[in-house]
């Protein structure tokens, strides 16, 4: 990525669009491993145009939901600047309608012009477009003129090199930001050799970045092969499909990870984002490859639910943890119930300055308590989310970690919220106004005395403005810190990928 926030198609490696494979868990995993750009699976315009955009507060995703309640496309903040929405279309107006529906949640819009399958071509979509360059031009021009996000397309080569070059030059004139080229004709199957000479010719014939595709079978096995594939094709960038489907850690600069590790990482995302069990199974079976008939493979194939799949991988505990967390987000537990996920105890607590006397904070109380107990002083680790500049802090006390699930507007606020969670879980004084009186009453020391004032946390409704601000911040809350991209430790910022 050349400039943060602006999608650049030069010198990048992309996860190719793949039906059934390119759903949210795979895209996030590919990003974790190092892919720069991730394409979603091809989604057909006729279906997409009926979808409603729904903010899913529980999962922290944006869902595009069909009238039959099927989620056709699920995305989240983490990938917003990296995900390319690929559609199948043969109609410029409908293509624009769909693109406008998803535009603000994605980084670019792509049109599939290479799919040779009958379900695509019989509707004039996919590879059928290759023999109708006027239609290609009409669709791409409409999109480029009607959208503020980059538009790209993915084609296959034509039988003649001259025709392929002419087509790519015509596409370039529509104003697209990049052209992905699969170096096989529509008649050729994936096992056929790739035409690197065609890719080289088109790359040299246009100024727009050409993304070379088709090298998974014999050219790219791990990340170190990517550079050779690029130079063999003279392309600006590389797009990987099958190599990534078999092992998405192909994007990892440090080399491939064992498939078992990758499958577990994938399953975590599938559970976290409530991915459909059958889709999850499909992707895991692709990763299992020849081991799909092993004992493990059989367990995966017969699984009916995400819970069954987790059982096959010995990940039931993880599944349960996530369910508890999701239930708490659904409001089935009061927000103050502590929930432990991945070894961190969390509560939905926010730090409000107005609840404390001047100069008093939860951090001070926590530090004081640690000193008294002769423990190491609390250690705060804060991450920030660049897209909305919110912060989340984890405090370590006595080798245990505590965190609020609510993102704060400042690093200081996030640390105070983490300290608050720790104090609340350990049932320690927090320093709030009126706290002593409240505790006295709760412990019965106040006898029959009627509570004179409500506890400060509930005492006064915050002013309207503050409530609205809080609602706004709550909308942005993320469930876990997987999405966090920038780590802030002791004030230093550096890029990190959460596991
Ligand atoms: C399972 C699977 C699904 C695919 N779905 C799509 C798709 O939705 N859109 C598309 O343009 N190409 C699709 N393709 C084609 C790939 O994007 C890619 O062009 C092809 O596999 C060659 O690249 P590779 O050698 O890296 O696999 C699919 C390929 C596979 C294996």
TrEMBL record:
<dbReference type="InterPro" id="IPR035587">
    <property type="entry name" value="DUS-like_FMN-bd"/>
</dbReference>
<feature type="domain" description="DRBM">
    <location>
        <begin position="361"/>
        <end position="428"/>
    </location>
</feature>
<keyword id="KW-0288">FMN</keyword>
<keyword id="KW-0285">Flavoprotein</keyword>
<dbReference type="GO" id="GO:0000049">
    <property type="term" value="F:tRNA binding"/>
</dbReference>
<feature type="compositionally biased region" description="Basic and acidic residues">
    <location>
        <begin position="472"/>
        <end position="485"/>
    </location>
</feature>
<feature type="region of interest" description="Disordered">
    <location>
        <begin position="432"/>
        <end position="499"/>
    </location>
</feature>
<dbReference type="InterPro" id="IPR052582">
    <property type="entry name" value="tRNA-DUS-like"/>
</dbReference>
<dbReference type="InterPro" id="IPR013785">
    <property type="entry name" value="Aldolase_TIM"/>
</dbReference>
<keyword id="KW-0560">Oxidoreductase</keyword>
<dbReference type="InterPro" id="IPR018517">
    <property type="entry name" value="tRNA_hU_synthase_CS"/>
</dbReference>
<feature type="compositionally biased region" description="Low complexity">
    <location>
        <begin position="453"/>
        <end position="464"/>
    </location>
</feature>
<dbReference type="GO" id="GO:0017150">
    <property type="term" value="F:tRNA dihydrouridine synthase activity"/>
</dbReference>
<keyword id="KW-0819">tRNA processing</keyword>
<dbReference type="Pfam" id="PF01207">
    <property type="entry name" value="Dus"/>
</dbReference>
<dbReference type="GO" id="GO:0050660">
    <property type="term" value="F:flavin adenine dinucleotide binding"/>
</dbReference>
<dbReference type="Pfam" id="PF00035">
    <property type="entry name" value="dsrm"/>
</dbReference>
<protein>
    <submittedName>
        <fullName>Dihydrouridine synthase 2</fullName>
    </submittedName>
</protein>
<keyword id="KW-0694">RNA-binding</keyword>
<dbReference type="GO" id="GO:0005737">
    <property type="term" value="C:cytoplasm"/>
</dbReference>
<dbReference type="InterPro" id="IPR044463">
    <property type="entry name" value="DUS2_DSRM"/>
</dbReference>
<dbReference type="InterPro" id="IPR014720">
    <property type="entry name" value="dsRBD_dom"/>
</dbReference>
């Amino acid at each position: 990525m050349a400039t943060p926030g602006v999608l650049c198609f030069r010198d990048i490696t992309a996860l190719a669009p793949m039906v059934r494979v390119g759903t949210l868990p795979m895209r996030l995993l590919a990003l974790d491993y190092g892919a720069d750009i991730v394409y979603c699976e091809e989604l057909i315009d006729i279906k997409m145009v009926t979808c409603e955009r729904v903010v899913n507060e529980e999962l922290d995703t944006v869902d595009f939901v069909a009238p039959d309640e099927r989620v056709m496309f699920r995305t989240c903040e983490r990938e917003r600047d990296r995900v390319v929405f690929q559609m199948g279309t043969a109609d410029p107006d409908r293509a624009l309608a769909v693109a406008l529906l998803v535009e603000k949640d994605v980084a670019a819009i792509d049109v599939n012009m290479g799919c040779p399958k009958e379900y695509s071509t019989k509707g004039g979509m996919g590879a059928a477009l290759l023999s109708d360059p006027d239609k290609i031009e009409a669709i791409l021009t409409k999109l480029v003129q009607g959208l503020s996000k980059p538009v790209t397309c993915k084609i296959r080569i034509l039988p003649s090199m001259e025709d392929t070059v002419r087509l790519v030059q015509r596409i370039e004139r529509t104003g697209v930001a990049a052209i992905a080229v699969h170096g096989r004709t529509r008649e050729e199957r994936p096992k056929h050799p790739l035409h690197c000479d065609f890719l080289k010719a088109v790359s040299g014939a246009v100024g727009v970045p050409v993304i070379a595709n088709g090298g998974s079978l014999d050219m790219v096995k791990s990340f170190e092969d990517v550079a050779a594939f690029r130079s063999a094709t003279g392309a600006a960038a590389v797009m990987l499909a099958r190599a990534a489907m078999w092992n998405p850690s192909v994007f990892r600069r440090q080399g491939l990870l064992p498939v078992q590790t990758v499958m577990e990482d994938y399953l975590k995302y599938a559970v976290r984002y409530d991915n459909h069990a059958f889709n999850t199974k499909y992707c895991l079976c692709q990763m299992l490859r020849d081991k799909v008939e092993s004992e493990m493979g059989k367990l995966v194939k017969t699984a009916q639910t995400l819970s069954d799949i987790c059982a096959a991988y010995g990940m039931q505990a993880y599944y349960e943890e996530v369910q508890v967390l999701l239930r708490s987000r659904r409001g089935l537990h009061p927000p103050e119930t502590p929930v432990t996920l991945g070894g961190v105890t969390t509560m939905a607590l926010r730090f409000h300055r107005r609840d404390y006397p001047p100069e008093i904070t939860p951090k001070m109380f926590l530090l004081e308590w640690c000193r008294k107990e002769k423990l190491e002083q609390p250690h705060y680790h804060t991450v920030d989310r660049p897209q909305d500049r919110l912060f989340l802090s984890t405090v370590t006390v006595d080798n245990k970690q505590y965190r609020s699930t609510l993102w704060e507007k400042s690093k200081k606020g996030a640390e105070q919220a983490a300290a608050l969670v720790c104090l609340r879980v350990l049932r320690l004084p927090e320093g709030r106004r009126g706290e002593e009186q409240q505790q006295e009453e709760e412990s019965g020391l106040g006898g029959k005395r009627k509570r004179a004032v409500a506890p400060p946390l509930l005492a006064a409704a915050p002013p309207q403005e503050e409530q609205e601000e809080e609602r706004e911040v709550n909308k942005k809350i993320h469930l876990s810190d997987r999405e966090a991209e920038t780590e802030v430790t002791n004030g230093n910022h550096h890029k990190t990928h959460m596991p």
